[in-house]
Specification:
Blueprint: H1 4-12, H2 17-29, E1 36-39, E2 41-42, E3 45-47, H3 51-62, E4 70-75, H4 85-93, H5 98-105, H6 113-117, H7 126-134, E5 149-151, E6 158-159, H8 160-171, E7 173-174, E8 177-183, H9 186-207, E9 210-216, E10 224-225, E11 243-244, H10 252-255, E12 262-266, H11 278-307, H12 312-321, E13 325-326, H13 333-340, E14 344-351, E15 359-364, E16 370-375, E17 393-394, E18 398-402, E19 423-429, E20 432-438, E21 451-456
Parallel strand pairs: 2-3, 3-21, 4-8, 4-12, 8-9, 14-21
Antiparallel strand pairs: 1-15, 5-6, 7-8, 10-11, 12-18, 13-16, 14-17, 14-18, 15-16, 19-20
Helix pairs in contact: 3-11, 4-7, 8-9, 12-13
């Protein structure tokens, strides 16, 4: 199937022929649907904290042991293509929807308006105004969201990436150092570095911290081959194989390299203004406090198991009620020990108010357990789709991760995934249809074998910017 030139191309990607053949087999076979049992709900998979409990967990995190290192992991690779899709359609195809009217009628309310005024001479030329936002001018159409100006303040506007500096200082400092890691595209890393080099000192002075900022790119060895509709390898006009980035699940390899006891994970576009940031900071700290407490209890149970002093009935109760694993009747010490010996994540979940996003579900596993998973609609079979209507909450990508074992070693996160939970989608290249494959999503199948606890968090902690008009919402004004 593969020529000598193909083999060279595969090797250059850091892939093996076996891995590529497995990807092609996945296209042919398809991925099985998740064995969804029910939607998680308050009292059955979703923990509800009282204000007093949230405050107590936050205080516990603030008073954590000095040995607890902290980092914040922010996926920031994606270009803002969807954010400006309607603007491109207006400029390139003369298609004008309500979004363009909203944009132009409120143009002065956008934080990037002063920048726009500097490059637009005539605001009566509507197409020129829109073009200046996405093309020559601000050039936002070819930038990632992190480099788009989101919020206006008296002392100057902030881009999305700057708001993560602020958040990091408010809940992610350890010994006065804020560690932030951004996954970026190679072509944009220079712009990120230049912006942060220019502005980081200001935030260090405001918050009395030092920033330790690092970057990584999605590894080419995580790319997946594209195929034709008949599942044969797709070739470009020049005859080469086409490899595509495999979605945010590919970032598990990047996350796996982060060395910290507590890792916050949050998308680049989910930020709000200083005035509305209180709930975000409180609940980030509360989730981290819960994580550290559960970790401590988990380690104590593992010690008791090792010493032979563990009461298995009480341990099973802890696993079911604290780690949110529904056990089979015939559970034993070996199963309980395996369940305790894996990474743990606390996931904030917001009330379902019609926003897009995966949902929290109970899923049946081969070992007889039921565990909590974040599932996308594409992972759920048609006959189980009705369960999505029962979901009271959805996933805002608000994670706090514990990746260290009881013996002080770091888990290899690649061993706690479910490879069968990938995605297949229809795309095109050069006007030709193709099928693309994504790895299990970072917070979906890539974390399928983690201990997962879902916690209700206020909707005020969720303020994503999916389209540019979202910047007109109160959370961004």
């Amino acid at each position: 199937m593969f020529t000598e030139k193909d083999l060279e191309q595969i090797a250059a990607h850091g892939l093996s022929v076996e891995a590529v053949n497995l990807q092609i087999e996945n296209f042919r076979r398809g991925f099985p649907s998740l064995k969804v049992v029910s939607a998680a709900s308050p009292g059955d998979g979703i923990t509800i904290l009282t204000p007093e409990q949230a405050a107590a967990y936050a205080e516990s995190y603030e008073n954590r042991d000095a040995s607890v290192t902290v980092a914040k992991f922010v996926p920031a690779s994606g270009a803002a293509t969807r954010m400006f899709k309607e603007l491109f359609e207006f400029v390139n195809e003369d298609k004008r929807g309500k979004g363009i009217d909203t944009l132009l009628q409120n143009i002065e309310k956008f934080a990037f308006y002063p920048e726009l005024k500097a490059v637009v001479a005539d605001f009566s030329d509507e197409k020129a105004v829109v073009s200046a936002i996405i093309k020559q001018g601000l050039g936002y159409g070819s930038l990632p969201k992190g480099l788009v100006t989101f919020h206006a303040y008296e002392n100057g506007a902030r881009k999305a990436v700057e708001e993560h500096l602020v958040e990091g200082a408010l809940y992610g400092a350890a010994d006065g150092v804020v560690r932030l890691h951004f996954t970026v595209s190679p072509e944009h890393e220079g712009a990120f570095r230049a912006l942060l080099a220019e502005r980081t000192a200001k935030y260090e002075q405001i918050f009395g911290v030092k920033y330790d900022i690092s970057f990584s790119q999605q590894m080419s060895s995580t790319d997946t081959i594209a195929v034709n509709p008949d599942n044969t390898p797709f070739r470009t006009d020049s005859g080469e194989l086409l490899f595509r980035p495999a979605g945010h699940g590919a970032l598990l390899a990047n996350l796996n390299k982060i060395d910290a006891k507590v890792i916050f994970v949050k998308n680049i576009d989910n930020v709000t203004t200083d005035a509305l940031r209180g709930d975000t900071v409180l609940y980030k700290k509360a989730l981290a406090g819960m994580l550290l407490e559960l970790q401590q209890q988990t380690f104590a149970w593992l010690k008791a198991l090792k010493e032979g002093s563990a009461n298995l009935v009480e341990l099973a109760d802890f696993v079911e009620n604290k780690l949110c694993v529904k056990l089979p009747e015939n559970n034993d010490a070996a199963l309980l020990e395996r369940l305790l010996s894996r990474p743990i994540r606390l996931c904030g979940m917001v009330r379902n108010e019609g926003e897009p996003g995966g949902g929290p579900f109970w899923v049946a596993n081969a070992d007889g357990t039921q565990t909590l998973q974040i599932a996308e609609s594409s992972q759920i079979s048609a006959e189980d789709m009705h369960l999505m209507k029962d979901a009271t909450h959805f996933n805002p990508v608000d994670l706090v991760c514990g990746v260290y074992a009881a013996d002080g070693t770091k888990y290899d996160l690649s061993k706690y995934t479910d490879p069968s939970t990938g995605f297949i989608s229809s795309k095109s290249s050069g006007g030709r249809d193709l099928r693309a494959q994504e790895l299990p999503g970072l917070w979906n199948g890539a974390m399928a074998d983690w201990n997962t606890i879902f916690v209700d968090v206020p909707i005020t902690t969720f303020s994503p910017v999916k389209v540019v008009q979202d910047l007109l919402r109160p959370q961004h004004q």
